TrEMBL record:
Pathway: Organic acid metabolism; glycolate biosynthesis; glycolate from 2-phosphoglycolate: step 1/1. One of its GO terms (biological process) is DNA repair. Its EC number is 3.1.3.18. It catalyses: 2-phosphoglycolate + H2O = glycolate + phosphate. It holds the Pfam family HAD_2. SUPFAM superfamilies: HAD-like. GO terms for cellular component: cytosol. Belongs to the HAD-like hydrolase superfamily. CbbY/CbbZ/Gph/YieH family. Keywords: Hydrolase. This is phosphoglycolate phosphatase. The keyword Hydrolase applies. GO terms for molecular function: phosphoglycolate phosphatase activity.
Length: 214
């Protein structure tokens, strides 16, 4: 059976910290609240926006307004300020030659598809699953199951490549093998992932080598 590889987006395939930082700071400034530091925001990337804003001190009754302002600012800048991580384009091309690929992200699939098309790599993915496609986000396994269903594949012979514990926990709950990458935002990756690599291309190479042996 052909291998399936699911990918997180931020910190795994792309670097979108610039527009993320910009949008968070703009939201806090617009609503006259203390602006968080980059490192505070970075430590929360991968979580849902509501959790991030709450953790950064946004009042509970204003969270929806914070998110609205964030999304408006992010939408204006994310295409110009997001980059594909080094080596990912060629790695995805290679991966698509022996596996079915999908994205599983806490971003919306709408923005993710536009971004991946802009970066020239959408063509490699058979599905893009985002926050607007599920009712529960990572670490719940629902996004993983939704992606596998979209590409019509079982959890057997499937891998999830990500950079935070959220990716690993979701994958394990879906009986999918979890591979971590150090190029993103997670810490103590070895505590959560089966194997940890420097980047997505190294993880893809490992999968390809193991497939050749099996």
């Amino acid at each position: 059976m052909k291998t399936s590889i699911l990918f997180d987006l931020d910190g795994t395939l792309i670097d979108s910290t610039v527009p993320i930082y910009r949008a968070f700071k703009f939201a806090f400034a617009s609503l006259n609240h203390k602006i968080p530091q980059d490192e505070q925001i970075k430590a929360l990337i991968g979580h849902p926006l509501s959790f991030m804003f709450s953790s950064l001190g946004a009042p509970k009754d204003e969270i929806d307004e914070f998110i609205k302002i964030y999304k408006e600012c992010y939408a204006k800048h994310y295409l110009d300020e997001t980059i594909l991580l080094d080596g990912c384009a060629s790695a995805l091309k290679s991966a698509s030659s022996f596996a079915d690929l999908a994205v599983v992200t806490t971003k919306t699939s709408k923005y993710s598809r536009i971004l991946l098309e802009h970066l020239g790599v959408l063509k490699y993915f058979k599905a893009v699953i985002g926050a607007d496609d599920v009712s529960r986000l990572k670490p719940d396994p629902e996004p993983i199951f939704t992606a596998l269903k979209a590409i019509n594949k079982p959890s057997t012979n499937a891998f999830m490549i990500g950079d935070t514990a959220l990716d690993a926990l979701a994958a394990k709950a879906a009986s999918v093998r979890a591979l971590g990458v150090r190029c993103g935002f997670g810490k103590d990756l070895q505590d959560y992932f089966e194997c940890v690599f420097n980047n997505a291309q190294d993880a893809i190479s490992w999968i390809k080598e193991n497939e050749a042996k099996s």
